Fold:
Amino acid sequence: MGQRDFFLLFQSYVQVNKLIQPGDKVVVGFSGGADSTALLLALSHLRTSIRFSILAAHINYHLRGEDSMQDEAFVKEFCFSRNIALVLKNAPISPKSGMEAKAREIRFTYFNSLKELYHTNKIALGHHKGDQAETVLFRLMRGAGINGLKGITPSSDTIIHPLLPFSREDIVAYLTSQKISWREDLSNQNTLYSRNKIRNDLLPWIRTNINPNITDQLASTATIFYETDQILAEMASRRIKSVILYQDETAIHLNLTPLQKWRSVLRFYLYRKAFAQLVGANSDFYQSHFDAIEAMSASNGSKYITLPHNVVVQKQYQTIIFRDVSGIEKIDVNNKKVLTSLRSRFSFEGWRISMKKLKKMPTNRYPFEDPFITYIDLDAITFPITIRHRQSGDRFVPMGMKNSKKLKDFFIDEKVPKFERDKVLIFCDDAKIIWVCGLRIDNRVVTTSDTSNLLRIKVERVATRKMRAAERVKTRN
Structure:
């Protein structure tokens, strides 16, 4: 591929995928190898037509002794001769197990720090078609789903990959046509690393024995999965509103009942969407996380699992809750409300509570769909009624049991996360706990066919009620 053909395809790919806009400030990872050299050169030519700025960033890990120093010298000369701004970082690491992961961590931490320091908004990396093929094959062998098999995407958050349409041969031909040299990293031949084994052993064997066009084929497959991923993500975005029961900045409550009728692939994308809405990106939500949520959803009782970025996923009856616990608000465990007589409606903390005296049980009697509505035997309680949070030594007799149980042990058995336990409302009468809100009533206040005075208690979040009212207004308009 000649210089002109290369640049025209490069320019078209950037524009079609909207990788760079006028006014962008782009950090370019520049190792001095052929890929990053071609990327920086093409971007330096492109900036005359799109009008954006570039900042080359080189990290010297000092892994190859004098060769590493020569890489740095090459990078400096290349940028100086072309009037390209350059920043350098020295970050010595030892060539031990996990070195690649450590280098990646250093690299992205540094790139992100440059965003803060120089107000850049894009990071350009030199991954090409060969890297795409290796990535797809690597993830396929590790059991990735659609999300993984889409491989390296043209853009992901602030990271862009303008060289994906080009093979290594295209890149070398481009540099050669302009008489541009580059640095070779001999560690790329080291087959101790899984990706190098795929690059140097597996792909050449497939190319020779099965499919000579395997690189193009895998890259094309990645494009198909990428487009499929986008379609499914858009479907999930449209559908998520129909299953949200409650949402704020730290939590999203999803109705599991309709979700269980969906195909599992759509549930994956919806859960990934919920995760992304809390943390700002979906890149760390994987198939293994989805499988854990699916297993939890199919089990009985209340359970929870932990995801990256301090996100916890809970199952409470037919509700799946995604919650960001990183900045969870502290509860005043000493706060309480005392009622000397029945109150039809009142508020406590972030909840609206309503009470109603009934003569008979409604036809849709226990178990109820909503765990925050309960019916108890009014004649079995002694005023005052106190609404509070858990206290040390709390015990009650969970419905269906004859003996009392420590509330702490009950929470453990019900898989209530520690961070949630202080938030659970406890309803007590003058002598006992009568309801652990959302979970279980006391066996001593259970209604029977002989119960003539019933107390219906309903607890709902104030924010939930406001949101639903707003939705009704929106629907009418």
The longest helix spans residues 214-243. The two ends are 58 Å apart (CA to CA).
